[in-house]
Amino acid sequence: LVAVGSALRGLGGSPALFAGQILAMAGIGVINVLLPGLVKRDFPDRVALMTGLYTMALCSGAAAAAGATVPLVAAFGGSWTAALAFWAVPAAAAAAFWTLQVPRSMPASHAILPVRGLWADPLAWQVMLFMGLQSALAYIVMSWLPPILRDRGLLPVEAGLVLSLSVATQACACLIAPTLATRGKAQSAANVLSAALCIASLLGCFFAPLGTVWLWSALLGISQGALFSIAMTVIVLRAPDVRVAAHLSGMAQGGGYMIASSGPLLTGLLHAWTGSWNTVAMFCVALGGAAGLFGWLAGRAHQVRHRTGT
After folding, report:
1. Domain locations in the chain?
2. What is the largest CA-CA distance in the chain?
3. How many whole angstroms separate alpha carbon 13 and alpha carbon 60?
4. pLDDT (0 to 100) of residue 103
5. Where on the phi/psi map is residue 13: left (φ > 0), alpha (ψ -120 to 50), or beta?
6. Domain topology for 2-104+109-308
7. 3-class DSSP state of 308
8. Mean pLDDT, residues 216-226
9. Of the segments 66-75, 151-160, 198-207, which one has the largest average pLDDT value?
10. Which of 48, 96, 124, 280 has CB atoms 3.0–4.6 Å from 178's, for a disulfide?
11. Can you give the pLDDT at residue 33?
């Protein structure tokens, strides 16, 4: 789906662009939901390491694509459609790799019973809200940090580089944070500390002297990389088995990203209504505090309750 959608975007025209985007995003959504279950199934004793590796790959891939697309436009003679279609190549390569991992013969198995009851479980909601709130902060940073820094006096190129630094440090934190967070049975303290660092770093980007914004941006990337990777790890740890991990992942990421998608919109509305970034800063503090609260609850060493069958 990702490869086909990316190729479709390269055909040109708004219908192909939007149709391709929908297909590509659908594929990414399916992959994101399935990965925690895959980790639970194949690497039950190395959850932190494998979650760290794939979340680092997610952040690194996103940063690479964002940084390489404009040079690709130039390389293709100014064709943005060709630059967009190029990303079908790595997607197709990944699909080919995974095809090799599929067993040629599947063993007979018992009927798979559906997992029910997650939406009635408070812990599952806490995992979803933690995922959604920390993702909302990440979306706000990606969308609004450069305009905020430009209004503070940075040149557009400098503001973009500050954001790039934040994204780069996210990838490093994604690899390390899950291993540190899983040294104990609970991840509550790690989630709260990461949320607190995120709040402090955001306030630094908003209000600290401009000469220090590079430091605050790096710390922001570390905190947000830790929040994202631990949130993905928590999905695996709070599920007792592979099937529940997949269902909890669907709930946490589906509901969580719906929450997160409102973050940039609300940020823009707040700035438009007040004409000040101070209100936006307070909104981010509130989101960070809520993420810390639900991170504490989701990080407790419990597992979700569920039932199977009809």
Report:
1. 2-104+109-308
2. 64
3. 29
4. 64
5. left
6. Growth Hormone; Chain: A; (1.20.1250)
7. strand
8. 96
9. 198-207
10. 48
11. 76
